[in-house]
Amino acid sequence: MANALGVLLLGLVAAGPRAESLPLWELGAGLGVISFPDYRGSDQREMRALPFPYFNFRGERFRVGRQGVRGMLVDTERVELDFSMSGTPPVESKDNRARAGMEDLDPTFEFGPSLNVNLWQDATRDTTVQLRLPLRAAVATDFTHLHNAGVVFQPNLALDFYDLRGWKLGFLAGVIFADQRQHDYLYGVPAQYATAERPAYRAQGGYGGAYITTALRRRSGPFWLAAFARADTLNGAVFEDSPLVRTDRAYYAGIALSWIFKQSKARVESSEPE
Questions:
Q1: DSSP 3
Q2: Gap between the Cα atoms of 76 and 118, Å rounded
Q3: What is the pLDDT of residues 22-48, one digit of tens each?
Q4: Which helix (H) or strand (E) holds 127?
Q5: What does R_g of the chain's alpha carbons equal in angstroms?
Q6: Using the 8-state DSSP alphabet, how is residue 59 labeled?
Q7: 68 pLDDT tier (thresholds 50, 70, 90)
Q8: Which residue, 53, 65, 85, 73, is CA-closest to 24?
Q9: What was the pLDDT predicted at 19?
Q10: What gap in Å lies between CA 128 and CA 123, rounded to an integer?
């Protein structure tokens, strides 16, 4: 659960192409608080405090940080092709009214390539616009077995401001598409779990909604502070008529504070976020 919640909390707004001189690696620890729905479309939500390790490695081709584990396949001034990961937290059906009596939703882990195109930047590189095209395969697991959870495509547009009196501000807007397997895993109701109030339902692949995220972050000495808010709409999603969809809105918010207590003396030019 911690890994999946960490993805939600720390997947704020990814870096744009502004390069800085940064340590090759950093090690620390942090604490975050996040409020999130049980799943997109649920009318129930949770708030959790989450301790997490802070680790950044900024290698030339292999990188680890707040964007997850990334393998840089292509990295030029204009275009990046990397390999990244994402995920979602588990849902215990006994605690969710819409899913009562159904099997739990295992945490999912997504991995796949992302093509990132740097569309525009100002002369100082303090403001950037980037198009990102991540395509990821998803697996669901309770750590005793793996289940194919489909494929997700989330094209998005990111606007980053890198120098607002020491703060960095980002906005990201995108849409979500997924195949039938992904949507049916989250929103399908098998016949054996059908009730008078929850008819059997088989979800289709296609459009899965849109979202907008804003994030604010700052590095001050050994401390890193970040906050984010995200709003999703499921209006027009192919699974909007699922009996598990109780609302067509989803809201997320979180704040995290990290203490970085060790870093390398070696430094590299990197566009990874601070």
A1: H
A2: 10
A3: 888 899 999 999 999 999 999 999 999
A4: strand 127-141
A5: 19
A6: -
A7: low
A8: 65
A9: 60
A10: 10
Comparing 174 with 52, the larger pLDDT belongs to: 174
Half-sphere exposure of 201 (CA within 13 A, CB side): 24
Residue 229, Cβ neighbours under 10 Å: how many? 16
- 């890994």: which residue's tokens? 3
Nearby residues of 76 by Cβ (< 8 Å), 6 or more positions away: none
Q: How far apart are CA 255 and CA 7, in angstroms?
A: 13
* Domain ranges for the chain: 2-270
pLDDT on residue 238: 98
Positions of E strands within 12-126:
20-23, 25-37, 45-58, 62-65, 68-75, 79-88, 108-121
Q: What is this structure's pTM?
A: 0.85
The answer, yes or no, to whether residue 231 has pLDDT greater than 80, is yes
Residue 116, both tokens? 């990132």
What phi, psi does 246 have (nearest 5°)? -100, -15
Q: Say if residue 14's pLDDT is above 80.
A: no
Task: Mention every residue, 6+ apart, whose C-beta is less than 8 A from residue 144.
Answer: none
12: confidence class by pLDDT, cuts 50, 70, 90: very low
Which candidate, 27, 45, 37, 34, places its Cα nearest to that of 12?
A: 34
Burial of 196 (0-12, 13-18, 19+ CB in 10 A): exposed
Structural contact between residues 108 and 138, judged by C-beta atoms closer than 8 angstroms = yes
In this structure, CATH architecture of domain 2-270 = Beta Barrel (2.40)
Take residue 228 and report the two structure tokens written for it. 């984010």
- The whole-angstrom separation of Cα 194 and Cα 77 is 53
Residue 111 one-letter amino acid: F
CA 29, CA 6: separation in Å to the nearest integer?
12
What average pLDDT does this structure show over 262-273?
A: 74
